[in-house]
Amino acid sequence: MKSETKTILITGSSSGIGFALAEYFGKKGHAVYGLSRKNIDNSYFKTIPTDITDNEQIIASVTQILKTEKNIDVLINNAGMGMVGAVEDSTKEDIWKLFNLNLVGAVQAMAAVMPNMRAHQSGKIINVSSIGSEMGLPFRGFYSASKAALDKVTEAMRYEVYPWNIQVCSLHLGDIKTKIAENRVQVKVSEAYQKVFDNTYEVMNSHVDDGTDPYEVVVYIENLLAKKSWKAHYYFGKLGQKIAVPLKWLLPQNVFERLMKKYNKLD
Predict the structure, then answer these.
(1) Candidate list 13, 14, 133, 146, residue with the active-site label
(2) How does pLDDT run across 8-56, given as a tens digit for each residue?
(3) pLDDT score of 180 more than 80
(4) What's 8's DSSP letter?
(5) Is 129 known to be catalytic?
(6) Of 13, 129, 144, 170, which one is the catalytic site residue?
């Protein structure tokens, strides 16, 4: 990112990657605003308590920021949650809760900043996605689907906003060492799936525990913001996870599925 001060809006700033981003860019001297349901007392950034699934709250928060700041230069759509459970066991309420945050909330945040970015003919939006959006993860099918939906919205936005020099991208992350496991939507697993689910659940939690430090993501995003032009998709994580993306494209589906079964201890 260039040295001049930017106004940066980050959703999901109360913990994990969002908090690390907000504090880091605040220490760098940028005007940083975090939107989260929890009010975080931090001298480096200002929290505006906001439920991003509530469009009126998002609009009010952006309006509040623009009473102080001339522009919103950067939006990082980081707020999101996981969901674990079998597709068959998932309820409409579980699915809606997930998509309402991971997709609808992100779209509402983009819509709220767009008038200001359009007026100033500039802006950058990063939608935090997942490497898992590129494939259906076992017992995380709806999480994969919610992030894949956000990816497609991101691609559409790139066509729609380029006349105003606004850039949008998806940042696909591997496992990051955060408290995402504590905040997942937990589907009640039926007896038919319980044994295989338990094996996979242990694996996915171990991957999070061994995940990349959030501050490595922060540095990556700082370098990404410094780029003059963006691709639609960026991938960040450990090699063993990133490599799954080209393998998914190149390998026959049945071969890829065998590798995924082994990786997730389904066999």
Answers:
(1) 14
(2) 999 999 999 999 999 999 999 999 999 999 888 898 999 999 999 999 9
(3) no
(4) E
(5) yes
(6) 129
- The reply to whether 242 belongs to the active site is no
Task: List pLDDT tens digits, range 208-248.
Answer: 877 789 999 999 999 999 999 999 999 999 998 999 999 99
Residues 6+ apart with CB under 8 A from 128: 17, 76, 77, 78, 80, 171, 173
144 noted as active-site residue: no
pLDDT of residue 209: 77
From the candidates 143, 144, 146, 235, give the one annotated as an active-site residue. Answer: 143
Q: Which residues contact 133 (CB under 8 A, 6 or more apart)?
A: 144, 147, 148, 150, 151, 170, 172
Dihedral angle, C-alpha 85, 234, 104, 212, nearest 10 °: 50
Examine the residue annotation and report whether 147 is marked as an active-site residue of this protein. Answer: yes
